[in-house]
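Fold it.
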Amino acid sequence: MLARREYSRLELERKLVSFTENTGEIAELLDDFERRGWLSERRVVEQVLASRRRRFGAQRIAHELREKGLSDAAIAGAQLQLQESELETARAVWMKKFGVMPANARDKVRQMRFLQGRGFSLDIIRRLLRDLED
């Protein structure tokens, strides 16, 4: 499994629990994987950021990292990296999906909802739309 992609400790634990009755063995195995460098929280974060940062905002990516069982420190570090380019990412996502300014309030709300669904904060969305209007 680790040859295909990076897994968090929690993800591997969930996958391996069906293969044994003794869950203590899984913890020992995962500890051994971490010692050998086969299991790395840092690499999981890097992989998620590399695959998601062009399409999603910091909130959605942070939520995905939490679901994977990563530490709060790793998530905070990822959010710092994402905040640097979040406005540009939101602009690229908006251009790909819409490309034209909203014609009325209904279209504006629809565009804002779409961007929120992609994990962008309301502050970033407002700043993006304000920049586009200027």
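The longest helix spans residues 72-97.
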